[in-house]
Design a protein that fits this description.
InterPro entries: ABC/ECF_trnsptr_transmembrane (IPR003339). Helix content is 69%, strand content 3%. It has 264 residues and is mostly helical.
């Protein structure tokens, strides 16, 4: 089974699946804002409870979620480690010449790790519980007021939905290229830095060609079905705001109020 699930949709009938896509998008943005402005451990504990409740309601196992975010954990950890050395505030814990680790750096590193992890989790939940077509429709609904400013709302929503749709496809293609290169005797973790850069080029160039080929096939498929960008489209099943959305907003606003109160 492919471990990379970001951008994929897992069908289901849970309350999260049945929510309005525009509402889910706005709640995702609200959660990210709450994560970015959090500055206390109690805030991160509340946000962690909120994301756990969301996943439980979505009926997606945490084992699946872990396999999905596992490829990104190394990037998050690397970013957190960098933050470890750039905050000189607080008591010195360890030092070696110009390299120093302080209490402030340790705290900042932990905060950065939690922020990135929570943001990736809520974004993964959004894509797992929302089909790309409905996600594009949600983006279109949110951006609808900007039509008066001549903003190409339909094109923007289509671009975003296509980008999300092709993330897992390109990842699978990358894995295929890596396996093909390894079958030819390529060892990516050996050699000098320049050798490794050249080996990475042997992955990136075929991936770019594959991306262009996928884009060409998609454009031909859309043209063969008479797709035009200057026509406003309607939906067979228009999503509406339901009681589920009201409950979700009440829960998220409650946790947001708790975070504001903790700052006071």
């Amino acid at each position: 089974m492919n471990s990379f699930i970001f951008g994929e949709y897992i069908p289901g009938s849970s309350p999260v699946h049945r929510m309005n896509p525009a509402s889910k998008l706005l709640l995702c943005v609200l959660f990210i804002i709450m994560t970015l402005i959090s500055s206390h451990w109690i805030d991160y504990a509340e946000l962690s409870i909120l994301i756990i409740i969301s996943f439980v309601m979505c009926h997606i196992s945490f084992q699946v979620i872990y396999r999905g975010i596992k490829p990104l954990l190394l990037i998050i950890l690397f970013t957190a480690i960098l933050q470890l050395f750039f905050d000189p505030a607080g008591k010195l814990i360890w030092g070696l010449g110009p390299i120093k680790i302080t209490e402030g750096g340790l705290s900042s590193s932990a905060f950065v790790f939690c922020r990135f992890l929570l943001i990736i989790l809520i974004s993964t939940l959004l894509t797992l519980s929302t089909p790309p077509t409905k996600l594009a429709n949600g983006i279109r609904v949110i951006l609808n007021p900007f039509r008066k400013l001549k903003l190409p709302v339909d094109i923007i929503s289509l671009m975003i939905s296509v980008a999300l749709r092709f993330i897992p496809t390109l990842y699978k293609e990358l894995r295929t290229i890596i396996k093909a290169q390894r079958s030819r005797g390529m060892i990516f973790r050996s050699g000098s830095l320049s050798d490794r850069v050249k080996k990475m080029a042997m992955l990136i160039i075929p991936l770019l060609f594959s991306s262009f080929e996928q884009a060409r096939k998609l454009s031909y498929a859309m043209l063969s079905r008479g797709y035009q960008t200057n026509i406003r489209r309607t939906q067979i099943n228009e999503s509406s705001f339901t009681k589920l959305d009201g409950i979700a907003w009440a829960i998220y606003l409650f946790f947001g109020a708790l975070e504001i109160m903790s700052k006071g």
